[in-house]
């Protein structure tokens, strides 16, 4: 019998988290479908940075809830052998005396109002934590000790394994061809492996969300955007004890972390290359991009002026007009719930997002209000715009 209590489309970190939480909340028969394998898509391209720093307060709440999960991951998924690969090194963010200074101060005050532990540092204190960097132009520096980075692929596969233990069926290599709708209500999906029935469908299709738009006729504002990530081999160690950084004073609002030994993983936090069609295949990393990012790194980390390129890759974001996700019911199709448009935030928020999508789908009160994340905000103008402008630090 191909009938299920709920069907989840997509087995990335959001989809597997949603499936786990559906089962945890009592859904007895849950199906997850993915065109590839668990965590193979954009999840595998994540830089893995974890922070609660956001200039959009709603995101701070989701990040707080998610951090609690990451910090207690084996217990949360009830598997002593499970790991999210957490490195708790802290998160340091700073701004110069420019247009980012007031927004940073306001964002930090918002975090503190929500009970998040922060430290304000002077240049000397910052250099003690991140000695390979210079801070002479920093007008405001903050450090969030309860932050760091983890492994998105490990998290997705751990959620999938925990979901399977609770009876969830995960079918890999199965593509959804269309949504089945009867009398304005979802009734299942047609796939390359046949028809599966359910009156609850949760789409976590990420950059493939335009397929959902085609199946439903809904306008779902999301575009695939490719970003370049570099691993630079420098002359000085960037240890796992040194914090993740966000440099609002740099042209590209650089972010980075240790990649082990003397390597730095680094990328820009601004708009990337818009793709004509969804594609997770590796794009070309241009010499111009390497030079542009490298010059900014050298300005902040002087010894990295002589750094070499250890490796590089591209990651694809599913970006909405305000760089924040759509979460919850979609209009016109009863029983259809979606989570898309994470714009680089998906991994950081994945435990909490999976929980609220599952709660929403099952008709339960959600841990946080999904009203600010509704798709209607794009027509009403109530956008979730970050204080720093377009980019993944919203």
UniProtKB/TrEMBL annotation:
GO MF term list: oxidoreductase activity
Keyword Oxidoreductase: yes
GO CC, one annotated term: cytoplasm
Occurrences of domain FAD dependent oxidoreductase (ranges): 5-359
Sorted UniProt keywords: Oxidoreductase
SUPFAM superfamilies: FAD/NAD(P)-binding domain
PANTHER family per record: FAD-DEPENDENT OXIDOREDUCTASE DOMAIN-CONTAINING PROTEIN 1, SARCOSINE DEHYDROGENASE-RELATED
Protein name per Swiss-Prot or TrEMBL: FAD dependent oxidoreductase
Organism from which the protein derives: Herbaspirillum frisingense GSF30
């Amino acid at each position: 019998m191909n009938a299920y209590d709920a069907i989840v489309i997509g087995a990335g970190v959001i989809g597997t988290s949603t499936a786990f939480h559906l089962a945890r909340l009592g859904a007895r028969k849950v199906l997850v479908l993915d065109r590839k394998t668990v965590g193979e898509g954009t999840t595998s391209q994540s830089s893995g940075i974890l922070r609660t720093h956001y200039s959009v307060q709603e995101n701070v709440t989701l990040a707080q809830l998610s951090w609690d999960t990451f910090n207690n991951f084996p217990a949360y998924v009830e598997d002593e052998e499970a790991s999210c690969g957490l490195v708790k090194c802290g998160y340091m963010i700073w701004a110069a005396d420019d247009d980012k200074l007031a927004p940073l101060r306001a964002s930090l005050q918002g975090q503190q109002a929500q009970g998040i532990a922060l430290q304000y540092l002077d240049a000397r204190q910052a250099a003690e934590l991140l000695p390979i960097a210079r801070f002479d132009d920093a007008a405001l520096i903050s450090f969030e000790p309860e932050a760091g980075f983890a492994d998105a692929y490990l998290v997705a596969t751990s959620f999938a394994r925990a979901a399977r233990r609770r009876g969830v069926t995960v079918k890999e290599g199965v593509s959804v061809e269309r949504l089945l709708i009867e009398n304005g209500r979802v009734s299942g999906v047609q796939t390359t492996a046949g028809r599966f029935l359910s009156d609850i469908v949760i789409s976590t299709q990420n950059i493939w969300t335009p397929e959902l738009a085609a199946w439903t006729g809904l306008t779902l504002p999301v575009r695939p955007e490719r970003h370049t990530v570099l691993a630079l081999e420098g002359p000085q160690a960037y240890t796992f004890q040194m914090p993740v950084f966000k440099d609002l004073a740099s042209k590209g609002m650089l972010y980075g972390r240790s990649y082990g030994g003397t390597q730095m993983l680094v990328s820009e936090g601004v708009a990337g290359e818009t793709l004509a069609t969804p594609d997770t295949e590796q794009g070309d990393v241009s010499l111009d991009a390497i030079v542009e990012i490298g010059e900014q790194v050298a300005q902040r980390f002087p010894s990295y002026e002589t750094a070499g390129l250890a490796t590089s890759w591209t990651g694809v974001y599913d970006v909405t007009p305000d760089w924040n996700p759509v979460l919850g019911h979609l209009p016109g199709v009863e029983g259809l719930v979606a989570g898309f448009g994470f714009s680089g935030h998906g991994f950081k928020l994945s435990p909490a997002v999976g929980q609220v999508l599952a709660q929403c789908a099952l008709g339960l009160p959600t841990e946080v209000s999904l009203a600010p994340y509704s798709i209607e905000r794009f027509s009403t103008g109530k956008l979730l715009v970050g204080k720093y402008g377009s980019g993944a630090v919203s």
